[in-house]
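Bumping my old thread because nobody answered last time. Still need a sequence for this structure:
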C-alpha cells in the first residue's frame, strides 16, 4: 500500500491511496474459505461447495468490504502519523468507473486542513468583568418577601391596597388564559388600581395590558406572554378574581432565622442582611462570570483572523448528518455554524497553548462539590464523605455525565485563564441594573 498527499493550498489537500493485490488477497481468501465451510448452496453438501462457486457468489462483496476496511484504517493511521489536524472527515472523490475486477486500486480523498493562527488574549480594548452586588433596597425587598412567605395568610372580603390576589387573566383572541397570584402593589397607575380596590371574589375586571404592571416582567410572568410579544402588547384582558388575601408579615425572630438557615447560624437582623447579601452575591458572581465568558468568546472570534476551508466543509456537511443536505442547505447550515466552528478551533488552540487539562482527581472533586451544593438546596447541609463518594462514583460511571462535568470544569479553567491573562476592567453594578442593561 502506498499513500501520497498533494497540498492544494494551506487549507485543502488530496490524499491518494494505492492498494495492491497483496494488501488484501490473504484476508479475502481466508474469509471466502470460511464462507465455503458454512455455505448452504442447493446441490452441494455443506463444506464441499466448489471455491469457484463461492468466489463467484461472494467474492466481489467480500473484496469491496475488505478494501473499504483497509482504506479506513490506512487513512486513520496516516492522519495520526502525519499529525494532520483536519476538519470534518476525509471525503472520497467519486469514482464511477472503478473496476473491481482489477488487481490494484487507487482512491483519492479530499481533506480540509485546520488553519494555523495565533490567539492574543490581551487586546488593546479592555473587556468588563461585572461585580454584581446586592444593594440595601434589594436586601430589604428579599427580607420582606421572606416575611410574606412565612407570614400568616388572612382572607379578605374585598380588595384593599395591601391585598394579594389570585385569579385568571383571559383573552380568547390572543389565547391568553393564565392563573396568577400577585400583590396589588404590582399594579401600575391610579386608574388601574381603582379598578381593583373594592373588587370581590367572582368579580371580573377589564384591563388594558399596556402599562398594567410596574415591573418589566409583569406581562411575561402573570399572563405567560412571550417576552418579545409583551414589549408591544396593547390589548384588553379580563381578570376573574378567585381569591383575596392579606399576608401578615412574619416576625424577624430567632425562630424564623433558625427555620431559614438552621439553628443559631443567624442571630440578628444585621446578620440576616449580611447572610442574604453574601448568598445573593455568590449567585450573582456566576452570572457575572458567564457574561465575561460570553464577552471574551465574542472578542476572540472577532479578533482572531483566519480562513476556513469553506467549500470543503460545505461539501462535507451535505453527507455528514443523518439526513443528506442539498448544496444550498449545506451553505445555509455552514453560515449558521461558522462562528461556533471558529470558536471551537480558538478554544482548542488556547487549551493546547496553555496546557489546560482535566485530571481525574479534579473531576471527582468538582463533582463532589457540585453534589454537595445540590444537596444543600434540599436542606441536606452536612452530607457524609461516604454519601458524597457514593453519588460521585455513580455519576463518574456515566460517560455522558463525565463529559458534561468535564466540559464545565474546562470552562472554569478557561474562565480563570481569561481573568488573569485578558485585558479586563472591573465594574461594580447592582443586580437590578445588570438585568436592565443586558436582559431587558
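Sorry it took so long. Here it is:
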Amino acid at each position: 500500500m502506498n499513500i501520497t498527499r498533494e497540498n492544494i493550498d494551506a487549507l485543502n489537500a488530496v490524499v491518494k491511496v494505492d492498494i495492491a493485490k497483496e494488501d488484501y488477497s490473504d484476508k479475502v481468501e481466508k474469509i471466502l474459505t470460511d464462507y465455503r465451510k458454512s455455505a448452504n448452496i442447493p446441490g452441494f453438501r455443506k463444506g464441499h461447495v466448489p471455491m469457484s462457486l463461492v468466489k463467484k457468489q461472494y467474492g466481489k462483496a467480500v473484496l469491496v468490504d475488505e478494501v473499504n476496511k483497509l482504506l479506513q484504517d490506512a487513512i486513520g493511521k496516516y492522519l495520526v502519523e502525519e499529525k494532520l489536524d483536519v476538519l470534518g472527515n476525509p471525503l472520497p472523490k467519486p469514482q464511477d468507473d472503478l473496476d473491481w475486477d482489477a488487481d490494484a486500486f487507487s482512491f483519492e480523498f479530499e481533506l480540509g486542513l485546520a488553519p494555523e493562527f495565533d490567539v492574543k488574549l490581551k487586546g488593546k480594548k479592555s473587556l468588563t468583568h461585572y461585580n454584581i452586588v446586592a444593594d440595601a433596597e434589594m436586601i430589604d425587598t428579599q427580607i420582606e418577601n421572606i416575611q410574606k412567605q412565612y407570614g400568616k395568610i388572612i382572607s379578605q372580603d374585598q380588595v384593599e391596597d395591601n391585598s394579594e390576589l389570585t385569579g385568571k387573566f383571559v383573552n380568547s383572541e390572543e389565547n391568553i388564559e393564565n392563573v396568577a397570584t400577585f400583590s396589588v402593589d404590582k399594579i401600575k397607575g391610579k386608574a388601574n388600581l381603582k379598578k381593583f380596590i373594592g373588587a370581590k371574589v367572582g368579580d371580573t375586571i377589564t384591563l388594558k395590558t399596556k402599562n398594567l404592571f410596574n415591573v418589566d416582567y409583569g406581562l411575561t410572568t402573570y399572563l405567560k406572554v412571550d417576552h418579545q410579544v409583551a414589549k408591544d402588547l396593547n390589548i384588553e384582558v379580563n381578570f376573574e378574581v378567585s381569591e383575596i388575601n392579606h399576608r401578615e408579615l412574619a416576625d424577624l425572630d430567632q425562630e424564623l432565622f433558625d427555620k431559614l438557615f438552621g439553628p443559631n447560624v443567624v442571630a440578628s437582623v444585621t446578620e440576616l442582611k449580611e447572610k442574604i447579601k453574601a448568598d445573593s452575591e455568590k449567585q450573582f458572581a456566576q452570572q457575572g462570570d458567564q457574561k465575561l465568558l460570553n464577552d471574551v468568546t465574542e472578542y476572540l472570534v472577532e479578533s482572531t483572523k483566519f480562513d476556513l476551508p469553506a467549500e470543503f466543509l460545505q461539501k462535507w456537511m451535505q453527507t455528514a448528518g443523518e439526513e443528506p443536505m442539498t448544496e444550498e442547505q449545506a451553505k445555509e447550515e455552514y453560515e449558521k455554524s461558522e462562528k461556533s466552528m471558529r470558536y471551537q478551533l480558538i478554544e482548542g488552540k488556547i487549551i493546547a497553548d496553555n496546557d489546560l487539562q482535566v485530571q481525574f482527581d479534579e473531576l471527582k472533586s468538582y463533582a463532589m462539590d457540585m453534589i454537595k451544593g445540590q444537596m444543600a438546596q434540599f436542606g441536606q447541609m452536612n452530607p457524609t464523605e461516604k454519601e458524597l463518594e457514593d453519588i460521585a462514583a455513580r455519576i463518574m460511571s456515566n460517560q455522558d455525565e463525565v463529559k458534561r462535568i468535564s466540559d464545565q470544569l474546562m470552562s472554569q479553567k478557561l474562565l480563570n485563564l481569561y481573568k488573569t491573562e485578558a485585558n479586563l476592567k472591573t465594574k461594580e453594578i447592582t443586580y437590578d441594573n445588570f438585568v436592565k442593561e443586558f436582559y431587558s
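Residues 278-438 form a domain with the Trigger factor, domain 2 fold (CATH 1.10.3120). Let me know if any region looks off to you.
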